[in-house]
């Protein structure tokens, strides 16, 4: 499995935070911060939009680094991704991602 598939199955290479980071794109950081702040009703600033992927060494957004329950669970269980967990298809922690993004489960099984 590619390192850029997140613990939850999302593709980090398609994430705006990742894209803004690798391309040092300040306009994308600003656009993403504004959208994520509105969606999450949280004070997200452009300087928070830096991430190199949740499964690789390097900078991560505050959410991905320490607030993501999915990442924390996978780390605690020493799983490469949720796809390694026998409960992935019934898990409530990753279930919302899988139900909203069908490709996530494909990525985890792929």
Task: Considering the chains and any ligands shown, give keywords for the structure.
110 residues; mainly alpha; globular
* Overall average pLDDT: 93
Question: What letter string, H or E per element, gives the SSE order?
Answer: HHHHHH
Residue stretches low in confidence (pLDDT < 50, at least 5 long) are none
Name the overall outline: globular
Give a short account of the largest sheet: none
Helical content band:
40-55%
Number of strands: 0
Q: What structural class results from the helix and strand content?
A: mainly alpha
How many separate domains make up the residues?
A: 1
* Relative strand content: under 5%
Q: What is the gyration radius calculated from CA atoms?
A: 14 Å
Q: What is the rounded distance between the termini? A: 7 Å
Helical element count?
A: 6
Report on this model:
With 110 residues, the chain is mainly α. It has one domain (12-109). The protein has six helices and no strands. The chain has helices at 16-22, 26-40, 62-67, 69-76, 92-100, 102-109. Helix 1 runs antiparallel to helix 2 (26-40) and helix 5 packs across helix 6 (102-109).
Q: Topology of this protein?
A:
Layout: H1 16-22, H2 26-40, H3 62-67, H4 69-76, H5 92-100, H6 102-109
Helix pairs in contact: 1-2, 5-6
Short description:
With 110 residues, the protein is mostly helical.
């Amino acid at each position: 499995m590619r390192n850029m598939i997140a613990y939850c199955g999302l593709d980090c290479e398609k994430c705006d935070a990742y894209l803004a980071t690798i391309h040092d794109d300040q306009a994308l950081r600003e656009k993403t911060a504004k959208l994520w702040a509105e969606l999450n009703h949280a004070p997200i600033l452009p300087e928070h939009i830096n991430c190199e992927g949740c499964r690789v060494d390097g900078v991560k957004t505050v959410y991905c680094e320490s607030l993501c329950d999915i990442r924390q669970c996978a780390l605690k269980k020493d799983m490469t991704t949720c796809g390694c967990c026998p409960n992935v298809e019934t898990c409530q922690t990753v279930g919302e991602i899988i139900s909203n993004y069908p490709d996530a489960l494909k990525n985890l099984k792929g």
